[in-house]
Write a structure and sequence with these properties.
This protein is mainly β. The chain is built from one helix and seven strands, in the order ββββββαβ. It is 12% helix and 34% strand.
Length: 82
């Protein structure tokens, strides 16, 4: 006899990856929707930084790293497609 286990609840993630900021929300199977917070606030900078060692930083960490090494940073990553 086979035992049936219930499927895990469905959670959906929606993200608006904008040229300056990214915002994300979670929707659960019971209909609840909540905005994700990054360092206590919803908007996360859409920045990407590549360290000399090849490590990637995103968001506020990338924006902070840009102050020291702006040439390794894309402050508005979605605008730069190449």
């Amino acid at each position: 006899m086979t035992s049936l286990t219930p499927a895990p609840p469905t959670v959906r993630l929606g993200a608006d990856y904008g040229s300056s900021n990214t915002v994300a929300v979670l929707a659960t199977a019971d209909g609840r929707v909540r905005t994700l917070l990054f360092d206590g606030t919803p908007p996360l900078p859409s920045a990407v930084y590549a360290s000399p060692e090849g490590r990637l930083l995103v968001g506020r960490d990338a924006a902070r790293a840009a102050r020291l090494d702006p040439l390794r940073t894309r402050p508005e990553a979605p605008r730069r497609r190449r």
